[in-house]
Amino acid sequence: MDAPDSPGPLGSPGQPGSSDAGAGSGSSDADGILAEQLLRLTRRLHRIQSRQLEPIDITPAQFRLLRTVASYDAAPRMADLARRLDVVPRAVTTLVDALEASGRVRRAPDPDSRRVVRVEITDEGRATLRSLRSARRAAAEEILAPLTTDQREVLGGLLSALVDGMPERHC
Predict the structure, then answer these.
(1) In tens digits, what is the pLDDT along the chain, a chain of 171 residues?
(2) N or C end of the chain, less CB within 10 A?
(3) Closest Cα partner for 68 from 110, 99, 111?
C-alpha cells in the first residue's frame, strides 16, 4: 500500500520531479497534479474524520445520512434520502438499519400511504449530531492547521468556486 499522503510518481508542484517544472508542460499536466493532490487530501480528510467518529461508533456514511435526515422539516421517505444522497435505495436501507439499531433514527409509517416508510431522527440521533459536529470541527482543524487564516479564506473561496461551478448529476 502506498504511503497515504506521500507525493505520487509525478511529485508535487514546484518539487523536483514534478511535471510542472519543465518548459512546455501543458495545463493538463498541472490539472493532473491538482487532481492527485485533491484526491490525496480527500483520503487524508476521510481518515482523520473516521478516526474522530470512531469513539462515537458511527461511520462517515451514517453521519452523512443522519445529517441529511435532520435537514428535512418533516421525516423524509427512503426514496427522498437516496435521491438527496445520490445513492441507490438499497444503500439507504443498509444505513437506516444501522442507525435504527443504534437508536439514532426510527422508521415510521407515512400517514397518507401505508406503502411508504418515513425516517425520523430520534433524540439520541440529535445528541449524536451534536457530538459529531464537534468531531468534524476537530478534524477540520487538524487538516487546516498548516494554513494561516488568510490562506483558509482563500481556500474556502476556491473550494466554493469549484463546488458551485459543478454541474448537477442526474441519475
Answers:
(1) 444 444 443 333 444 344 444 444 557 888 899 999 999 988 988 888 788 778 888 888 898 999 999 999 999 999 999 999 999 999 999 999 999 999 999 999 988 888 889 999 999 999 999 988 887 788 888 889 999 999 999 999 998 998 888 665 544
(2) N
(3) 99
Separation CA 12–CA 17 (nearest Å): 8
Cell of 59: 461511520
Residue 35 parent element (H or E): helix 27-53
Instruction: Tell me if residue 79 falls in helix, strand or coil.
Output: helix
Q: Is 54 helix (H, G, I), strand (E, B) or coil?
A: helix
Determine the 3-state secondary structure of 157 from DSSP. Answer: helix
Question: Cell numbers 434520502 label which residue?
Answer: 81
Give the up-direction half-sphere exposure of residue 88: CA atoms within 13 A in the CB hemisphere.
3
